[in-house]
């Protein structure tokens, strides 16, 4: 049950991180912030969204490193 919950959190976290990455791509290419467009510029709602995206990115990157280490260790054991 715990592993299934972690997998679900990984997928949700990755999806939210990708939404944030798309937002920053739009900012870089077109100077358009999608969250400010929908929620208003410089609002607390935008700040909360950015905090959530940042935490999801940290969570995703942490598990990416952990999963990579586990995969690399099992790959070494096969040889």
Count of separate DSSP helical elements: 3
Overall shape: it is elongated
Task: Report the sheet-strand fraction.
Answer: under 5%
Rg for CA atoms: 17 Å
Low-confidence region ranges:
none
Largest beta-sheet details: none
Q: Average pLDDT value? A: 85
Q: Tell me the number of strands.
A: 0
Task: Write a concise keyword list for the protein shown above.
79 residues; mainly alpha
Q: What are the SSEs and their pairings?
A:
Blueprint: H1 2-30, H2 34-39, H3 44-78
Helix pairs in contact: 1-3
Give me a quick take on this structure.
This protein has 79 residues and is an all-alpha fold. The chain is 89% helix and 0% strand.
Description:
The protein is mainly α and 79 residues long. It has helices at 2-30, 34-39, 44-78. Helix 1 crosses helix 3 (44-78). The radius of gyration is 17 Å and the shape is elongated.
């Amino acid at each position: 049950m715990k592993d299934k919950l972690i997998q679900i959190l990984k997928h949700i976290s990755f999806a939210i991180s990708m939404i944030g990455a798309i937002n920053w791509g739009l900012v870089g290419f077109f100077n358009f912030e999608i969250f400010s467009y929908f929620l208003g510029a410089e609002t607390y709602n935008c700040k909360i969204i950015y905090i959530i995206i940042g935490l999801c990115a940290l969570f995703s990157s942490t598990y990416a490193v952990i999963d990579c280490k586990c995969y690399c260790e099992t790959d070494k054991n096969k040889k």
